[in-house]
Structure formats: structure tokens, C-alpha cells
């Protein structure tokens, strides 16, 4: 049965040739159904990444320079054409997968531009971005983030759902909570959104004074309970990027939720932040809220 969708705000899925593509599509379908909104599949072609032909214009002999430069230009054109054809094939396969899962009116965008520029153009109508933890160019670099992923998280002012290579429909979610203004904003966004409605929420606070922490957790649990969530709270000791991921694995959490980086200019360029470490070490899908 096809699901009718609201097209006012959309879920956008970044689809490429990486091993994450199917999971990205499946998580995007799940999110679009939960949010009752439309799905757009985006494949961006960065010419700088797809063109491997070196610039030899300065080292060519006078007699052969014109012919070879013409051949290089033709090769560039063929590579661009091939990249476009490959992108159309990838998007068509993702669309068929989404429609088979029950979505109607799935849109496709094939854009010859960088991923970041492509997403900036879609930002006004973007409700949730779904992207793999790593893209095609860095899929095998385990323990690291894809270059585009880190750029997006630091510049795009939208919620981002980062996927692993396999889809698992979320049943248990975890909110990384420390009582800060960022965490309170994430709590309010979770309470107001239908994305995770009906799922068990673990509200987990790492470190902090026990008395003060418990008060914060109780208040957070009450806020989610008022929105119809079932909650479970926990205070754990240790470095957040380590103990929160450990808690996730021990309690079989399917989706972790946390606030994004701070908004100061200095913090935007700190690569060793808790947020980045958490994302790098996460063993499940992770929703980063802004």
C-alpha cells in the first residue's frame, strides 16, 4: 500500500555508489513514513572528484600539443557523461527501492555540483537529511568520517541522520543528555517530532554530580512522558564518547540522538570534539540535531 505524503518539507537522502547507499535509502524511507513527508533522492557529481585526467598542457611538445589537448578534452567529456549515466542508474535503483517499500511521489535530483552546494540549495525545504557515515570515496576508512559528512555537520543547520551500512528499523533510541542548552533544545525537538514517537527512549547522562544530574534527567523524562514517550534514565561515569557508545551496545540501542557542535566560530573548527568522537565510534545510526 502506497503512503500519501505531505510535500511541504522533505526528507533528503544522499545516494552514491558506496556500501551505505541501500541503508541510506531504507532509513530515509522509514523517516519519510514516520514524518509523513516527501522523499527526495539526491546524487551530486563533483567534477573535481570524477575527473582524473591530469593537466599536461605545460609539458606537451609543440607538435603534439593541440592534438593531445583535444583528446584530453574528449576524455573529460566522456568521463562526465559516464558519471551522469551512473548517477541516473543509482537514483533509479534507489527510487524503485523506496517505491517498493510503500512510498509514492519519490523525487530524484541529479546535480553536477558539490554535495554541500547541492544541499544548501535544498536547505529551505529540508526537514531531515539522511546520509551514510562515509561516502564512496572513503567507505573503507573504518573509524573515520567521510569528508563531506564532517563538512555537512558543521555547516548545515538541519537535523542529520547518519547511517551504518545496514538498516535496522529503530525500536529503542537513546538521547545523549547533559542538561545543557543544546541538550534541552534536542529534547524539545525529540518531544515535538513524530519521528520516534512510540519508541522507548533511554535518556543517558555521562558524568556530572549525581544529585544535580538526576534532577535534570527526571525533568527530561517528564517532558518526554508528557509527549507520549516511554522513558528510561541512566547516569554513567566516564568520557562521554566512550561510555555512551558502550551503553548503546549493552542496551541494544538502534538509534542514538545528540545535539550538534556549538555555534561559535572557534568550536566549528575543533575536529577533536565530543560530537565528532561520538559519531566516529558509533555502532548504530545516529541522529544529530541542530
TrEMBL record:
Coiled-coil residues: none
Limits of the UspA domain: 10-162, 214-290
InterPro entries in UniProt: Universal_stress_UspA (IPR006015), UspA (IPR006016)
One Pfam family, short name: Usp
Cleavable signal peptide: none
Superkingdom of origin organism: Bacteria
Record family assignment: Belongs to the universal stress protein A family.
Protein name: Universal stress protein
Organism: Alishewanella longhuensis
Amino acid at each position: 500500500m502506497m503512503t500519501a505524503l505531505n510535500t511541504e518539507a522533505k526528507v533528503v537522502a544522499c545516494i552514491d555508489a558506496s556500501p551505505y547507499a541501500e541503508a541510506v535509502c531504507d532509513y530515509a524511507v522509514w523517516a519519510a513514513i514516520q514524518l509523513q513527508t516527501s522523499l527526495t533522492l539526491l546524487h551530486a557529481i563533483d567534477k573535481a572528484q570524477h575527473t582524473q585526467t591530469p593537466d599536461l598542457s605545460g609539458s606537451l611538445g609543440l607538435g603534439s600539443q593541440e592534438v593531445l589537448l583535444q583528446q584530453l578534452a574528449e576524455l573529460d567529456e566522456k568521463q562526465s557523461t559516464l558519471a551522469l549515466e551512473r548517477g541516473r542508474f543509482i537514483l533509479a535503483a534507489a527510487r524503485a527501492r523506496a517505491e517498493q517499500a510503500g512510498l509514492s511521489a519519490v523525487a530524484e535530483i541529479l546535480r553536477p555540483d558539490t554535495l554541500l552546494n547541492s544541499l544548501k540549495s535544498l536547505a529551505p525545504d529540508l526537514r531531515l537529511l539522511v546520509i551514510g557515515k562515509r561516502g564512496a570515496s572513503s567507505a573503507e576508512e573504518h573509524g573515520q568520517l567521510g569528508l563531506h559528512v564532517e563538512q555537512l555537520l558543521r555547516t548545515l543547520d538541519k537535523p542529520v541522520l547518519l547511517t551504518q551500512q545496514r538498516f535496522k528499523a529503530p525500536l529503542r533510541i537513546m538521547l545523549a543528555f547533559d542538561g545543557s542548552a543544546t541538550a534541552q533544545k534536542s529534547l524539545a525537538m525529540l518531544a515535538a517530532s513524530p519521528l520516534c514517537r512510540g519508541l522507548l527512549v533511554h535518556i543517558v547522562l555521562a558524568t556530572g554530580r549525581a544529585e544535580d544530574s538526576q534532577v535534570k534527567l527526571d525533568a527530561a523524562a517528564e517532558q518526554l512522558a508528557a509527549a507520549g514517550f516511554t522513558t528510561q534514565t541512566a547516569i554513567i561515569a566516564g568520557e562521554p564518547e566512550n561510555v555512551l557508545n558502550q551503553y548503546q551496545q549493552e542496551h541494544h540501542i538502534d538509534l542514538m540522538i545528540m545535539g550538534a557542535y556549538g555555534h561559535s566560530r572557534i568550536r566549528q573548527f575543533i575536529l577533536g570534539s565530543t560530537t565528532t568522537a561520538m559519531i566516529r565510534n558509533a555502532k548504530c545510526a545516529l541522529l544529530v540535531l541542530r
